[in-house]
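To start, one record:
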Amino acid sequence: MTRIVLALDSFKGSITAADASAALTAGIHDVDPSIDVVPRPMADGGEGTVSAFASAVPDARLIPVTVDGPAGRRVETSWLLLPATPDAPEGTAVIDLASTSGIELLDELRPWDADTTGFGQAIAAALDHGVSRLVLGIGSSASTDGGTGLLTALGAQFLDVEGQPIARGARGLADLARVDLSGLRSPIEVLVLTDVLSPLVGPAGAAAVFGPQKGLSDATDIAAVDAALARLAELLGVQPATPRTGAAGGAGLALHAWGAQLVSGAPEVAALIRLDEAIAEADLVVTGEGSFDGQSSEGKVPSLVTERAAAHGVPVVLVAGRIAESADATAFTSVVSLTVLAGTADAAIADPARYLREAGEILARPHLAR
């Protein structure tokens, strides 16, 4: 019997990893119902991290919480409570920045005013619940506030020269003169899952690389935010060149200053869902994400899956919403672009399940022929 492991990330803003896996499975079984399909929804710290843990951990429980979202209005969301373990006797909280302060929560970009306050409020709610450990996914951020919002929600104060709180978001960073951490809540064990290695500032930093995705389009504005982030790092006592501190618009900096450990997210999720064990018994692995581009080889799900599959000698197929011409896809035995199947990117985004099902049919046909 042919066994295919599906290790997909979410297709950001389009379809979750679990739903994408279900659509692919349906397409595969349309062609050959005998194929054993093993879904292992993945995440790298961004959108879908809570869902990946929820599907992998029995008795995990979603806890509702209402927070200040990045669009300036309240957002109803949830954090995930994992059952108690010997090293976390009161349980572990898993929280997505994406679901509290993420870019997908915006109707339009707010480069100066979006912030991470809601993420901090969700963290505070988990601490109030009494958990022993935090696992925080910080991909898909809407802001470049350096994590000032999240630390403010945890008791820190970011003040101007007159001792008044600065404005939320990147807008307030230029006025920052003093940081007061005396009221900051004491951290417990905190593991932060990131999908990038970026330092805080410079050509590879938060403002320069990811600011344009969040609406910072003018070079002068990017330089100003970059300088403000450097000042924030100085006040927090963190070297701005520290890897991963540029993640999530500088939220990585704030969490590092709080005492958290920043790690690559995809390997942590892979370990939890026992991805290696599933791949070892597979004939084929399918991985994918919404946009496969030059950044996909830097800690993203497809790069990790291909690495693990290569170790077991199992071929890998890529299914992505779009595949950039500049992207290196040589590690895959074949690739399927939903944009190509649909004819346009807009059509693929509007109905991803339809084209993922079609992709599943394409993948299954060679195995039926055998």
Notes: The chain has 15 helices and 13 strands. The chain has a mean pLDDT of 94. The first helix runs from residue 17 to 31. The first strand starts at residue 3 and ends at 8.
